[in-house]
Amino acid sequence: MSSIKIECVLPENCRCGESPVWEEASNSLLFVDIPAKRVCRWNSLSKQVQRVIVDAPVSSVALRQSGGYVATIGTKFCALNWEDQSVVVLAEVDQDKKNNRFNDGKVDPAGRYFAGTMAEGTDPAVLERHQGALYSLFPDHHVKKYFDQVDISNGLDWSLDHKIFYYIDSLSYSVDAFDYDLQTGQISKRRSVYKLEKDEHIPDGMCIDAEGKLWVACYNGGRVIRIDPVTGKRLQTVKLPVEKTTSCCFGGKDYSEMYVTCGRDGIDPQGLLKQPEAGGVFKITGLGVKGLAPYPYAG
């Protein structure tokens, strides 16, 4: 086994850092700070960070084939032009639910932008339940709604053969799978492939590696876990020096590095003394496995 190294590469003090995504073209990591309404781009070579502030909580960011990015801002799917920091709304959801906002999102292998919603709440324990839904924004900008009754729509990714869609509704404490039709974007046959254990706490963001195994960031668990979605077994646990680990992605020149975001909201001053790097961006090397390049939104 190679030795695993964990380092805080960016002490960003995110209130709730989320949605890390690697942009190969600029050797950069993109991520968001949801309540700070901030999209960040950290250049891994220059170590410089650029930030764009938007007008509502921004919960995910993704690459866009035609240039620039897409992001979920409030309850809107948006296009983000980095150069002039302009935002164009592509579609809006949950207009009947004033307290809702988008949460995690990711682009599928056909270029559709999947993202789900939740009721805005400061603490998962006192959240208004079953207010969210899962959507995708197709390249022609029409929106498809898959299902509702979601608590906290979270991690998502697709199997290597694109035939399975993996999804997390955090408060179900489960990683679920659906049969996936890449041509149509249809999903069916929901089932649980992994149930979280007590010490793993709340499943949050997720990504897949080049061996088809899933990595799940455990909120309040201070760790990412590697699971086999076929056997339902946990294969590996990597603990971080912060408790509110939120999401993970692979990056670096050959996608052999893992980047992990986390938050500091909800940690008292005593807690912050114990975990001064809370809200930072972490890099994990030596995992011995690679990830995949993210798919860009095709619209």
UniProtKB/TrEMBL annotation:
Binding annotation for a divalent metal cation: E18, N154, D204
Biological process terms in GO annotation: L-ascorbic acid biosynthetic process
GO MF annotations in UniProt: calcium ion binding; enzyme regulator activity; gluconolactonase activity; zinc ion binding
Compartment(s) where it occurs, according to its Swiss-Prot or TrEMBL record: Cytoplasm
Cofactor: Mn(2+); Zn(2+); Mg(2+); Ca(2+)
Residues where substrate binds: R101, N103
InterPro entries given in the database record: 6-blade_b-propeller_TolB-like (IPR011042), Regucalcin (IPR008367), SGL (IPR013658), SMP-30 (IPR005511)
Catalyzed chemical reaction(s): D-glucono-1,5-lactone + H2O = D-gluconate + H(+)
SUPFAM superfamilies from the UniProt entry: Calcium-dependent phosphotriesterase
Active-site residues per Swiss-Prot or TrEMBL entry: D204
Domain SMP-30/Gluconolactonase/LRE-like region: 16-262
Quaternary structure note: Monomer.
Name of the protein in question: Regucalcin
